[in-house]
Amino acid sequence: MRRLVSLTAAALLALTVATACTTEEGGGGSGGNGDGGDAKIAFLMPDIASTRYELYDSPLFEARMAELCADCEVIYNNANADASRQQQQANSALAQGVDVIVIDPVDSTAAASIVNTARSQGVPVIAYDRPILETPPDYYISFDNEAIGERIGQSLVDHLRETGAEGGLLQVNGSPTDAAAGLIKQGIHNAIDDSGFELLAEYDTPDWQPSDAQEWVSGQITRFGEEIAGVVAANDGTGGGAIAAFRAAGVEVPPVTGNDFEVAAAQRIVAGDQFNTISKPIAIVAEAAAEVAHQFASGEEPEGETTLFDTPAQLFEPTVVTLDNLAEVLAESEQIEVSEVCTAEYADACAAAGLG
After folding, report:
1. Which of 282, 341, 224 minimizes the C-alpha distance to 353?
2. Rounded to an integer, what distance in angstroms lies between the CA atom of residue 259 and that of residue 64?
3. Which one of 74, 93, 103, 226 has the fewest beta carbons within 10 angstroms of its own beta carbon?
């Protein structure tokens, strides 16, 4: 699987974000073709700010679909954080006669129009990673985003208490148009609101852009200085932006959280710059989405394990990663190799952390 991801990712990164990538040519038609044997499945991802969609989600989804249905066709597009573009990509997929749409929405509210349009044509919609509001889709597959927020927040609070830290917290949330970011935000508040550490300031990061997170944190460093005991960042990109702000200011980096377990985040943890992240094995959600999509294409109606936003759902449990368990998580990871983390620059830190 690791080899598959690496080879596929290299090809995907050479494509433009609006280019459709397909597997075997097939037929297909709206609303499922009875056995799913030659179905068309649209796989619509939200942005390239996070590297995961090109590197992992898309190739893993396509690989599982190929196992389930060799003659099925996957139509892949990335909206590059443009909700209007994603709407156009969905319309194009419907015009091509897709049987199912799997979508990670740029805008969780605006995506309701995609659900309505697809539903009018009898095409099921699976919300992937981020929920869709207003008009519930047919299914939702994700990690438990509120639990992610709670776990990174509580992990940081516990660490600050153990080290006797004093001061308050900055909270760097994800995109205000992303309902999953809203769930993470709520989870963070669940963990920190009664922690005894004052929330100094809070920011919703447009489109999850690390540069925006860095700029905002820079302003808070000027404002609060040494009062900042820690930063609860909603993902590795915003966490990396926060860390860059402290580095640019020439001051000590306090404990900073993250989420997504990117290679750069693992390196920052090894180096002592980032306190934690969240491991979400993307194969779990990508393969589950492929399986549910195939069921819909076969004319079945999959049942959810729970319900969220009035949508049948599968929600998987995340794992907090700190320096204490990084070696263990890397040993079990199908996404990141130790060699990717422990480059020459990080060799000594990796050796000290028991990696290598």
Report:
1. 341
2. 25
3. 226
Residue 78: phi and psi, rounded to 5, are: -120, 130
Write out pLDDT tens, residues 137-160.
Answer: 999 999 999 999 999 999 999 999
The b-or-e profile of 331-341 (16+ CB within 10 A means b, else e) is eebebbeeeeb
Whole-number Å distance between alpha carbons of 139 and 317? 18
Write down the residue that tokens 């309902």 correspond to: 179
CA 237 to chain centre: 11
Exposure string of 294-311, with b = 16+ CB inside 10 Å and e = fewer, is bbbbbeeebebeeebbeb
Which residues is 199 bridged to in the sheet? 169
pLDDT tens-place string over residues 214-238: 999 999 999 999 999 999 999 999 9
Tokens 């809070």 correspond to 202
**Which long-range contacts (C-beta less than 8 Å, at least 24 apart) are formed by 133-137?**
133/108, 133/109, 133/179, 133/309, 134/109, 136/309, 136/310, 136/311, 137/103, 137/311
Statement: residue 4 has pLDDT above 70: no
Handedness of CA 186, 324, 221, 239 (dihedral sign): negative
pLDDT tens digits along 310-341: 999 999 999 999 999 999 999 999 889 999 99
Query: Residue 174: pLDDT above 70?
Result: yes
All residues at 6 or more sequence positions from 343 whose CB lies less than 8 Å from its CB, including other chains = 267
- pLDDT 10s digits, 44-57: 999 988 888 998 99
Going by their DSSP bridges, the two strands 139-143 and 311-316 should be labelled as parallel
Please, where are the H alpha helices in 194-314? 210-224, 236-249, 263-271, 282-297
Q: How far apart are CA 157 and CA 153, in angstroms?
A: 6
Element (H, E) at 155: helix 145-162
The closest alpha carbon to 228, from 240, 245, 215, 211, belongs to 245
